[in-house]
Amino acid sequence: MDDPLFRYSVGTAMGSSSSQACKLQQHLHDQMLSQSEFCDVTLVIGEGEMKAHWCVLVYCSYFQSLYDSGMRERQSGRIKVNCGKPYAVRLALSFLYTGVAEMSYENIKDLLEVAEYFQITDLKLECAEYLRSVSISSDNCVSLCLLSDMYDLDIYHHAYSYLRGHIPEVLEQSETLTLTNDSILELLRDKMLCYVPQETFYSFLMRWVEKDAPNREQYFPELFCALDLEKIPKKFLNEKIETQPLVKKFENCNMHLLNTQMKYLNGHLKDNDDKRDVILIAGGCGIGPSINDFVLLFPFSDAMSVNNIYGYIIQEERWTELAPLPYRMRKPIITYDGGDKIYVYDASQYKQCEVFYVYVFKISEKYWSNFRMEAPDQCVDMSIESVVACRQELYLVASLHIGRGEACDKWQTVLLHVNQEGGKCSVKCHLFLRNVNTQMTVCTVSRMFICVLGWKIGHAVKNKHARYYPKFVYFNVKTGRRIDSSRGSVFDPLVFSVDDELIVAKFGKASARKFNFRDRCWKSAKEFALPNPPEFPSRVDYSYTTSGTGLYLIGGKDFETKKPVDSTLKFNFTSREWTKLDSLLEGRMYSGTCVTRMPQAHVRCHIKCPHCVYCFRKNQVKYDIDYQEEEDDDDYEDYDYGDYDGISDYWDVDDDDDVDVFDPFDEVWY
Fold first, then answer.
1. Sign of CA dihedral 144, 148, 150, 151
2. Does the CA dihedral 289-293-295-301 come out positive or negative?
3. Are 241 and 199 a contacting pair, CB within 8 Å?
4. What is the pLDDT of residues 97-125, one digit of tens each?
5. pLDDT-derived band at 404, boundaries 50, 70, 90
6. Residue 38: partners with Cβ closer than 8 Å, 6 or more residues away
7. How far is residue 38's CA from residue 22's CA, in Å, rounded to a whole number?
8. pLDDT band at residue 96 under the 50/70/90 scheme
9. Of 145, 219, 217, 148, residue with least CA distance to 181
10. Does the pLDDT of residue 407 top 90, yes or no?
11. What does the pLDDT look like over 325-352, one tens digit per residue?
C-alpha cells in the first residue's frame, strides 16, 4: 500500500541507520586511537605497539586468515607486523576503521606496500585513484611506472607512454638510473623511439653503468650492442666511443664498433651525410569500404580526403609522418626540385579559370607557402595535367583551350614554364593536340628530361575504328629542345625512370620497353617486366615510384571490394622478387608521390612516434598561405576529373582524327 506516512517512516529509519553506523564506526576508531581496554588485539609495529579490534581487522583477508588459522596470534592476541614503515601501517589501520587515509605523493609508495601486504583491496584502489590525479612529468614518470608495474595498477600504460614520449628529458633525471637492465634494453630496442639520438642513449648508458659499476658492467655488452652505431656521427664514434675503456674491455663491443667503422671506410656510410632518401605520399582518400568512383564525383567526397604526408625512409625501411598539407587534398600532384623545395598542386580543385595556386614546402625551414600562377595570354581555359620540377625550375604539362568562339575550340597539350613570382606562365614547347579520349603520363629522367607519353591524341577522331598510336615527346631542360621519339614507343600504365633510362611497363605483362636518351631509340626490356603484385593484384588508383633498383607500389584501391589498400610492396629489378614492406597507418588512394632527399632531423620520428603524441607535427611547421579569393559562380565552375588520366568530363566526345599543326608562339592563337 502506497502510504505517505509509511514512506516517511521507512526513509527516517534508513537515515537513522546510516547515521548510527557512522557513529559506531567513529566510536571504534576512537577506541583504537585511545588504546582502550575494549580493544582485543595488539599489533607490534617496529618497537611500538598499537591496539585494535579483531572485528575490524578481519575485514581484510590477511588478518582474516590469521584469525581463522587458529595460530598463536589469535591465542595470544598479539600480531607482529614485519612489513612497511610504522606510520604507513597506522594509516592503513585507520583506513580499515574510517575508509579514509591521508595520502600524498611522498607517502603513496609506503601505503601501497602496506596495502599489498595486508591485502587491503579498497586502500589499493584509493591509492591508484590518487595517482591518476597526479600530473605526470619528466620528474615522476619513472617512479609512477615502477610503482604501477610493481603493484599492477592501471595507470602504468599512461605513465609509460609519457616516458616514451619524453625520453631525452627523462634520461636526465637521477631516478632513471634505478631502471633495470631489462627496462633499458627494451627502450634501446624500441623502433618507435628513433626520435631520440643514439648519442643520448649512449651517454645515459655510461652514466647508468657508473652508478653501480661492480654489478652493472656485466650487462654493458648486451646494452651497447643494442645501440645503432650507424646513426652516430663518425666524430662521436672516434672521440667518445672508441676511446671508452669499457668498450675496449669486451670483444663483442669492439666488433660492434669495428663493423660500423668499416662501413665508413668502404663508403657504405658517409661522414656528415645527414640526408636520407624519402618517398613522400601526400594527400589522397582514405576512408571505408563504400568509396568508389561514383561517390567521388560528389562534393561531399572532400570529407574522405586527407592532408597527411607520409614518408618512407629507404635506408631505414620505415615510415614517418611529415608536415601536413595546408588543407585536405583528394588528388594532389607533388614534385621535388632536387634541392630544398617540394611543390604541390591540388588537381581535385580544378576551376574553369586562368588562375591557379601552387603550394611550396621549404624543407630546411619547415615552412609552407604558396603562389599564384596565371595561364598564358589568349588562353580561354587551362587544365593542368602534371607539375614537374627540373634544375630548380618549375614546369607544367597543361592542356590549353585556344580559339575564338565555340566553332574554333581546340585543346593543345603544351609544356609551360612557371613564373614563381606570381606572373603568367610561358609556353616552352608544343607537345601534341588532344581530345576527350586522350591519355597521358608524365615522367622526368635524370632531372633533365621532361617526358610525356600520350595515347589517343589529336584534336578529333574521324571514326571510332581509327587506329590509335602512342606519342612520345620529351623536352631537354638544359638545351631547351623538344624531341619527338614516338617511333617504337608503347603506351602502358606504368612509366618510370631507372638510372638514365625511361621504362614503360604493365603489371603481368611479359615484357617492357625502355628508352635510352643517348641512343634516342626504344628497345625491348624484359629485365624490367613486372609480374603481378602478390597482394591485391587487381588494385587500382595506387601510387608508385622508383628509387635505385626497386619499384615501390603503395596503397590504392581493391578493384573488387572498392576498399582502400594500406599495403606497401617493393619489386627488386635485380632479384626479380616482390618484398612486403611496412604498411601505411591506413588505406590510401589517389595520393601524390615523389622521391626526395631530406635531413635526418626532419624524418627522425617513427610514423607511430610516441613523442609526436605530445608535440603535434602541425605545430612544428609554419604556414603562410594566401588562399584564393572566392569569385562569382558565373565566372567559376568546379569540375571533377574522376581517375587522374588526363580526361576531362566536360569535353564533348568527337570521333574525328584530324591533327592540326599549331605554333604556340604565334601572336594570335586560334
1. positive
2. positive
3. no
4. 888 888 899 899 999 998 998 888 889 99
5. low
6. 31, 53
7. 19
8. confident
9. 219
10. no
11. 999 998 999 999 988 999 999 988 755 5
Q: 437 and 461 in contact (C-beta within 8 Å)?
A: yes
pTM: 0.79
Tell me how far apart the alpha carbons of residues 615 and 611 are, in angstroms, rounded to a whole number.
6
3-state secondary structure 56-92: HHCCCHHHHHHHHHCCHHHHHCEEEECCCCHHHHHHH
| Torsions phi, psi for 482 (to 5 deg) | -100, 130
Whole-number pLDDT of residue 94: 85
Give the whole-angstrom CA distance, residue 330 versus residue 301: 8
Q: 127 in helix, strand or coil?
A: helix
Residues 379 and 427: beta-carbon distance below 8 Å: no
Task: Characterise 538 by phi-psi region: left (phi > 0), alpha (psi -120 to 50), beta (else).
Answer: alpha
Strand order in the sheet with 367-374: 332-336, 341-346, 355-362, 367-374, 622-624
Sign of the torsion angle spanned by Cα atoms 551, 554, 559, 560: positive
Q: Residue 206: which of 161, 249, 164, 163 has the closest Cα?
A: 249
Residue 229: closest CA among 265, 201, 266: 201
Strand, coil or helix: what is 572? Answer: strand
Select from 494, 510, 430 the least CA-distant residue to 502. 494
Angstrom distance (rounded) from CA 254 to CA 248: 6
Residues 274 and 231: their CA atoms lie apart, in Å, by 9
> Who contacts 183 (Cβ-Cβ below 8 Å, separation ≥6)?
none
Phi, psi of 357 (to 5 degrees): -125, 135
Largest CA distance in the chain: 117
Pairwise CA distance, residues 182 & 234, whole Å: 28
Cell numbers linked to 300: 561531399
Domains of the chain, earliest start first:
23-134 (3.30.710.10), 179-273 (1.25.40.420), 275-624 (2.120.10.80)
Which H helix or E strand runs over 11? helix 4-33
Q: How far apart are CA 354 and CA 499, in angstroms?
A: 37
Query: At 437, which amino acid appears?
Result: N
Instruction: Tell me the sheet residues that pair with 329.
Output: 306
Hey, is 649 helix, strand or coil? coil
Contacts for 342 with CB less than 8 Å, ≥ 6 apart: 280, 334, 335, 336, 360, 361, 363, 594, 596
Q: Which residues, at least 6 apart from 403, have a Cβ–Cβ distance to it below 8 Å?
A: 380, 409, 410, 669, 670
Chain centre to alpha carbon of residue 434? 40
Q: Which residue bears the cell 591465542? A: 75
| Three cell numbers, residue 213 | 659499476
Comparing C-alpha atoms, which of 539, 551, 458, 473 is closest to residue 512?
551
Which cell goes with 156?
602504468
Q: Confirm if 313 and 321 have CB atoms less than 8 A apart.
A: no
Sorted by sequence, the CB contacts under 8 Å of residue 99 that are 6+ apart come out as: 122
Helix (H) or strand (E) holding 98, with range, is: helix 86-98
Residue carrying the nine cell digits 613564373? 419
Q: Which residues contact 300 (CB under 8 A, 6 or more apart)?
A: none
